[in-house]
Amino acid sequence: MNPLRPLRALIKDIRPEAEGVKTYTISIESSFVPAPGQFNMLGFPGVGEAPISLSSILYNGCFDHTIKSVGRVTGFLDNLKNGDGIFVRGPYGRGWPVKEAEGMDILLIAGGVGLAPIRPIIQTILSRKKSFGSVSLIYGARDEKNILYTDEFKEWEDRISLYPTVDEVLDKKMWKYNVGLVTELLDKVKIRAERTIAFVCGPEIMMRFVCRGLLMNRISQSKIYVSLERRMKCGIAQCGHCQHNGLFVCKDGPVFSYKEVKGLPDGML
Prior knowledge:
Blueprint: E1 7-18, E2 21-28, E3 39-44, E4 48-53, E5 62-68, H1 72-78, E6 85-92, H2 98-101, E7 105-111, H3 115-127, E8 135-141, H4 153-159, E9 161-166, E10 178-179, E11 196-201, H5 204-216, E12 224-227, E13 243-244, E14 247-248, E15 255-257, H6 258-261
Parallel strand pairs: 7-8, 7-11, 8-9, 9-10, 11-12
Antiparallel strand pairs: 1-2, 1-6, 2-5, 3-4, 3-6, 12-15, 13-14
């Protein structure tokens, strides 16, 4: 099968998540088995394509993409409705190291829409909780209106340790969680460095300081994983658009260990 050939898919549901952010439930007739952390190229003829991380595991023959409208392709997607068609290529890339995480304590840290690529890991953990140690999620956003998946918080709180935070509160009566930076919550999580693996996704400046905080907590560089976004075109390391110092984000990532990408010349982390 031609890896560059897009397949037609159907939008089954669209759910508003936050300001300018929607979750699209998509079905496709193919042997589509994505791994947590992988991405698809989504688009439409005449509009273009954009790389979007999967925000769910496969369920009932469907999968989710949580998308923020910020450009031409995502703006086009923002105007679609249930029943509309879309074209999909993928899944591509290296995802989160689920196998390596088995038996370990897991620390998940996300900022803003960066929770979307983390959500499939949460779903995987909840589906077989006994395979993992303790699980903690630190999640931050600008304010409570930009928090994703609030309808799932109750289930998450019942089964993992959840630490949401916002930079500022718009309505103090509606927000019962922390106010402040994501990095400030590292001190509230019991971290057993020798048996902890960390998955981090969000703005790169946030990931940079989070990774430094994790290192200060003695977590090994090889046990800290980050999900990076770069301008990807082909998805299979042929065009060179996402090449950085010998690494292809589309093929070697988008998930990398901190040890692999720290100090790269473009200032990734």
